[in-house]
């Protein structure tokens, strides 16, 4: 979609890529973007605080992984009595790790918040300053290829649910739209959503070509890393109205563990964009 930006009603879609979701949040708060892609938890928080955006779809189903450079740490059981670094205290990675720790009954796992960003944690793991960490893709792939000692212990998700249902509730990422824009320009809204869905499908159908595009767009530096990264991204565009129950179940975990993370209440039905 970035390689061939859609032209809708004579206007070309402009893409703004940021390294931190907080920067995307700032654009939304200043009403500078019609669409945005950000963590679902952050989207719900902004909605509960009165921002006029609703969730159109989930395009990415989990990019967080527990990694280790300790050859003796191979399973979640090996994390007992250990320390693990996680970025974003109170945010998605932190709350998910706390939930994961409880569900897996990992004893005496100490959470370390010394590093504030995904990149900082990744570099610390790469250079052996820490042993265990929660890392988000695409840095997962970069670390695995740069240091053969680094390995994945587990994906960070709600495994107790995923194993019992054909429905995935790990709706980590939200594609949102400004409600006023969607109301005023429904055809444009539909065209852009359709283009995004097609782009997500293309990633899975044409990984080789997608890898080339990632390099062309300077999002990754080499094809091997790009190809390794794609499966870890779990990209699949699913309309929000079709998975409303899954979204609410996902957000309920955050409401239970840290109500403030989603604005101290579950979002009402207006958070989910309903097709006309």
Short description:
The chain is an alpha+beta fold and 276 residues long. The chain is 41% helix and 18% strand.
Which structural traits does this protein have?
276 residues; alpha+beta; D-Maltodextrin-Binding Protein, domain 2; 2 domains; three-stranded antiparallel beta sheet; 11 helices; 11 strands; globular
Structural commentary:
The protein has 276 residues and is of the alpha+beta class. The chain has two domains: 7-61 and 170-258, D-Maltodextrin-Binding Protein, domain 2 (3-Layer(aba) Sandwich); 64-156, Periplasmic binding protein-like II (D-Maltodextrin-Binding Protein, domain 2), CATH 3.40.190.10. It is 41% helix and 18% strand. Helix 5 (139-146) crosses helix 10 and helix 9 crosses helix 10. The radius of gyration is 19 Å and the shape is globular. It starts with 6 loop residues before the first strand and ends in a 19-residue tail after the last helix.
Structural class: alpha+beta
Q: Fraction of residues in helices?
A: 40-55%
Give me the CATH architecture of the largest domain, please.
3-Layer(aba) Sandwich
| Total strand segments | 11
Low-confidence spans: none
Report strand order across the widest sheet: 3-10-4-11
**Largest sheet features:** 4 strands, antiparallel
Helix/strand order, N-terminal first = EEHEHEEEHEHEHEHEHHHHEH
* Helical run tally: 11
């Amino acid at each position: 979609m970035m390689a061939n930006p859609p032209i809708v009603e004579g206007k070309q879609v402009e893409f703004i890529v940021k390294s931190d979701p907080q920067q995307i949040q700032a654009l939304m708060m200043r009403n500078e973007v019609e669409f945005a892609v950000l963590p679902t938890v952050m989207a719900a928080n902004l909605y509960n605080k009165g921002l006029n955006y609703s969730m159109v779809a989930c395009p990415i189903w989990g990019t967080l992984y527990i990694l280790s450079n300790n050859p003796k740490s191979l399973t979640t059981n090996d994390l007992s009595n250990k320390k693990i670094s996680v970025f974003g205290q109170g945010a998605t990675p932190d709350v998910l790790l706390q939930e994961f720790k409880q569900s897996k009954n990992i004893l005496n796992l100490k959470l370390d918040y010394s590093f504030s960003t995904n990149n900082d944690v990744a570099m610390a793991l790469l250079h052996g300053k820490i042993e265990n960490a929660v890392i988000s893709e695409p840095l997962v792939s970069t670390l695995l290829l740069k240091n053969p000692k680094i390995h994945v212990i587990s994906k960070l998700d709600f495994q107790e649910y995923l194993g019992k249902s054909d429905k995935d509730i790990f709706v980590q990422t939200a594609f949102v739209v400004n409600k006023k824009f969607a109301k005023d320009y429904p055809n444009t809204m539909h065209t852009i959503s359709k283009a995004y869905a097609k782009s997500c499908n293309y990633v899975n159908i044409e990984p080789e070509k997608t890898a080339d595009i990632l390099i062309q767009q300077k999002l990754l530096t080499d094809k091997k890393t790009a190809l390794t990264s794609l499966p870890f991204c779990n990209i699949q565009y699913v309309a929000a109205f079709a998975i409303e129950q899954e979204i609410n179940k996902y957000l309920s975990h955050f409401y239970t563990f840290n109500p403030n993370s989603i604005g101290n209440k579950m979002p009402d039905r207006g958070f989910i964009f309903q097709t006309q």
